[in-house]
Amino acid sequence: MSGPTRAPTLADVAASAGVSLSTASLTFSGNKPVSATTRERVLAAAAELGYSGPNPLARNLRQGRSGVVGIAVGQLSTAFRDPAALAMLDAVSEVLGAAGLGLLLMSDDDDHARLPLDAVIYDICGRETWAAYADLVARDVPLVVVEGPAWPGSTYIDIEHRVGSAALAEHLHALGHRDVATVTLAASHPQREREAGLRDVFPHARVLGACESDVAAVQSLVAHHLDDRGPVTAIVCQSDVQAAGVVLEARRRGLRVPEDLSVAGFDGVATPWLDLELTTVVQPLADKGHATAEAVLGRIAGADVSDVLLPVALRVGDSTAPA
Amino acid sequence: MSGPTRAPTLADVAASAGVSLSTASLTFSGNKPVSATTRERVLAAAAELGYSGPNPLARNLRQGRSGVVGIAVGQLSTAFRDPAALAMLDAVSEVLGAAGLGLLLMSDDDDHARLPLDAVIYDICGRETWAAYADLVARDVPLVVVEGPAWPGSTYIDIEHRVGSAALAEHLHALGHRDVATVTLAASHPQREREAGLRDVFPHARVLGACESDVAAVQSLVAHHLDDRGPVTAIVCQSDVQAAGVVLEARRRGLRVPEDLSVAGFDGVATPWLDLELTTVVQPLADKGHATAEAVLGRIAGADVSDVLLPVALRVGDSTAPA
DNA sequence: TTGTAAGCGTTATCAT
DNA sequence: ATGATAACGCTTACAA
Predict the structure, then answer these.
(1) Same domain, B155 and B165
(2) Calpha distance B124→B170 (Å, rounded)
C-alpha cells in the first residue's frame, strides 16, 4: 500500500471534505459557527485520514503563544521535599491547568532560553540572582516572583513574613522566653523580613545557622548547638520541616519538647510523623498558589496586574511552653 | 519616539546588518560556519535592535519539535510526597535538561492535547487507564511508561518487583516469621508483581488494605489492625514511607519495632525523621530516571529503543528481627 | 562563505 | 456560513 506517508494536515482534511481550509480550521477551533452538515463532513474526512487535530506547533506560532508556563524552583528534589512547596505547586497547577496552560519545571542551571514560555514563575526563596532573568526580560516574558527579589518588571506575590514572625516571637515572650535562637534560610527577602520580625521582640536572638527545609540538614546543623547551648530556651525555625528536625534532634539528645525546649516553625503544614502539633505561623499556601497563577494569567493576557501580599496567622501548638 | 513597535525579527536584524536571512540565522544557530566579521555585524545589529534571539515558536514549527517533554505523575502533591518519586524526577530532569529539553508536569485530569509535546513519560504507578493515552497515540507522541501498563507502542521501564519482594519475604521467613501481613498499593502491575513475590514465600499473607505512600494515610489504615491483629508478626509495605507510617503507628499503640513487630519497606530512600533504618528493597531510582530520560531521547530521535528492567537489592536494616 | 527561496501548518482578516 | 489569502518567524536545501 502506501509508504511512510507524512501525517495529514488540515489542508488534507479540507481537500478531502471538499471545504476550504478556513472552514476546516473553524470546525476544530469552534471560533466561528459552522453548519452541522459541514462539520460532519469535515470530521468524517479527519477520521478517515487519521487526522488527530490541529498541530500545536503551528497554532503556537500563529497565535504567538505556547500554552506553557515555566516555574523555577531550584533543585527539584530539595525544593519539593518541603510539603509547603508542594501545596503551593498544587494550587498553581490547578488554576493554570483549568486555563489550559501547562507547567514546565525550570532547574536553576539549565538553559531554557530556547523553550517557548508564555510566562515564568520564580519560586526560589533563598536566591537573589538568576541567570535566566536577563534573558527573560529581553524576551519580554512576563515574570511572577514569589517571595523573591522585587525585580523590575515582575509581578510580586508575597506573605506577611515580618508580621507573622513578630507574632510568634511575642507568643514566646509571653511564655517567659528571653533567650531565643533561630535557624535561618539562605539570605533572602523572606529571611530578612522574618528575622526582623523576630528581632522586633528579641533583638539579640542568636542565629544557629542556615540550612534548607530538610530534616537531616537541620539535624546536623543544630546537633552540637543543643549540647553546648547557652541559656537558649526556644528555637525559632523558618519552616515546619526545619522545626521537626529540631524537635527530633532535641529528643535524640535527651531534651523534652516543649518542657526543656520550645520549638516553633513556619508554614503550617501537616507533619503526621511528628507526634505533636507544632506551634507555627500558618501561611495561606493555596491562596498563594492561586494568586500566583492568577497573576500569570493576567500578565499573559496583557492586563495590569498588581502585587499581592497575603496575611499569615499564628497557630499555637504543643511544641511551645513556658520557659 | 516610535510607538509600540513590534519586536524585531531575524529579518530585521539581517536587513540592518546587510546580510541575508539565512546568514543571520546561521549566526545564531551555529549550524554552519559564518565568517567572524559577518558574525560581528549581525550580532551588533541584533544588539542595536534589541533582538533577543530566534523566536522559539517559529523554530519549533520549522523543526517540528517543541523541546518539551511531558511527565504524567497524577496529583502533584501526593505524587511528590514520596521521596522516591522525587529522586526519580531529579534524574529524569538532569538528563533531559542536559539535552535542552524541558519537563512539563501533566496532571491526570487536564486536557493537554493542545500542548506541543515531543514525548511523554507516564509515571503513575497504580493507575491502569489514562484518558490522554489514545490521544497521544493518535498524535504519534512517543510514550515512555515507568512501571505502568505495557501499552502498545510505548517503551517500558521497570524494576524487578517480584524478585525483590521475594528476597524480602525470604529474609522474614529466615527470621522465623510465619504470619505476615502486607499493605498494598492500588491494583497495578507493580503491586501484582510484588504481591506475587511475597506469596512465593508466604502464600497466605494477609492484605491489610491499600493506600498511597503517605504517612498519615497508612497510619489510619493500619490503626485498628494493630489492635485486633491476629498472630501477625511482620508487616510488609510497598514503600518506605508506608513502612515509616506503620512503625510510627505501631509505637503509638505500644508495640516495639522490631521486637514486637517487624516492618519492611520498599524503595530504599532516606527517612531521617525515623530513628531506625528500615529493612527494605532498594531500587536504583537514579538509574531508573536516567534510563527513562535516555529512552525519551532515543524515541524522539526516532531510534529503536528497548525496554529496560532494572535490578533491586534487599537491604536489611533495624526494623526487622526474629519473630 | 553567503544568498535565494521554499516551506513548516495553522489562524485571522476580509470578502462574498 | 464559507472561501481566498496573507501572515506567523524561522530553518534548511540548494545555488552561487
Answers:
(1) no
(2) 29
Residue A2 lies in a domain: no
CA atoms of A268 and A261, how far apart (whole Å): 20
Q: Which residues contact A56 (CB under 8 A, 6 or more apart)?
A: A67, B66, B114, B115, B116
Q: Each residue of A14-33: pLDDT tens digit? A: 999 999 999 999 999 999 99
Closest nucleotide to B21, Cα to C1': C3
| B280 and B165 co-located in one domain | yes
* Residue B38 · residue B19 · CB < 8 Å: yes
Tell me the DSSP string of A176-205: T---EEEEE-SSSHHHHHHHHHHHHH-TTP
Check whether residue A108 and residue A219 sit in a common domain: no
Whether residue A280 is found in the same domain as residue A291 = no
CB contact (8 A) between residue B139 and residue A113: no
Tell me, in Å, how far CA of B175 is from C1' of D11? 66
B260/B166 same-domain check = yes
For the CA atoms of chain A, what is the radius of gyration? 26
The 10s digit of each residue's pLDDT in A33-70 is: 999 999 999 999 999 999 999 999 999 999 999 999 99
| Domain identity same for A153 and A167 | no
- Residue nearest C11, CA–C1′ metric: A62
Q: Find the CB nearest B138 among A52, A65, A112.
A: A52
Beta bridge partners, A209, equal A183
pLDDT in tens, B166-223: 999 999 999 999 999 999 999 999 999 999 999 999 999 999 999 999 898 999 998 8
> What's the structural domain count of chain A?
3
